[in-house]
Write a structure and sequence with these properties.
single chain, mainly alpha, 10 helices
């Protein structure tokens, strides 16, 4: 396939992923396989994906701030905890062989989609946010492990972040998404540094992906985050299952 056309498709996939990441999470379930399909070794694809995620996070944060939604110090505390975990996770990802990573990614993709479909519903009506005291410390511990996972593979981390914030801290969906993008921004710095230091980043593909990611993130952060969730699930289920099968067979 023509290189220019491939780059255009990558930008489109990045845009879709940016919307999905900001609304719910799971956009890397599309971008990671796409980068691998374009010929990047799995570790390089994993590192390159972080450029898009990083730039998208900046765009999404700006979008939320333009609507007056600011996560504050609570999000920073969780982000720092996740940052420490991401340094461990990213190093583990670099040390894993390509075929093994493909199989892990294929399994993770299916598990995350199943989790999206069957995850427990949390009723947040008439509840008080719990962002201080023991609930803050529980979240800090939880986000360390979320950071390890995010540093390792990224795919679906937003879903786990939203689950933690709604179930532990009782944050509403809008606030949870604003905290989520701040946390991802902070810990992605560490993961990206690890991948870049080990020469596991393709900067051209990463920047093209980032253009799409950032555009999608900006639009989705300003759009009502309560819309389109069902459509996102259906789209992800179809795409992820197909990509997971191909990843497994190609390993």
């Amino acid at each position: 396939m023509n290189e220019t056309l491939l780059l255009f498709i990558l930008a489109i996939i990045g845009f879709i992923a940016g919307v999905i990441n900001t609304i719910a999470g799971g956009g890397s379930l599309l971008t990671l396989p796409m980068l691998i399909f374009m010929g990047l070794p799995p570790a390089v694809a994993n590192g390159t994906n972080r450029i898009g995620v990083f730039i998208q996070s900046i765009s999404s944060i700006a979008g939320f701030r333009s609507k007056g939604i600011k996560p504050g110090s609570f999000g920073i505390y969780l982000g720092i905890s996740a940052l420490v975990g991401s340094l461990i996770g990213a190093q583990v990802a670099i040390d894993i062989k390509g075929d093994t990573f493909n199989k892990i990614l294929a399994i993770v993709m299916v598990i995350v989609v199943l989790f999206m479909v069957f995850k427990p519903k949390v009723n947040l009506q008439n509840v008080i946010e719990r962002t201080h005291g023991k609930h803050l410390w529980i979240s800090i511990l939880a986000f360390f492990f979320i950071g390890v996972y995010g540093g390792f593979i990224q795919a679906g981390v937003g879903i786990f972040i939203l689950l933690a914030l709604t179930s532990i801290n009782y944050l509403n969906l809008v606030t949870s998404n604003a905290v989520k993008v701040l946390v991802v921004f902070i810990y992605t710095i560490g993961a990206l540094v690890i991948f870049a230091y080990n020469n596991q980043v393709d900067y051209l593909y990463g920047l093209i992906l980032a253009i799409g990611n950032a555009t999608g993130g900006w639009i989705a952060s300003r759009w009502s985050v309560k819309k389109g969730d069902g459509l996102v699930k259906v789209f992800l289920i179809i795409m992820v299952i197909a990509m997971a099968i191909k990843l497994w067979l190609d390993s």
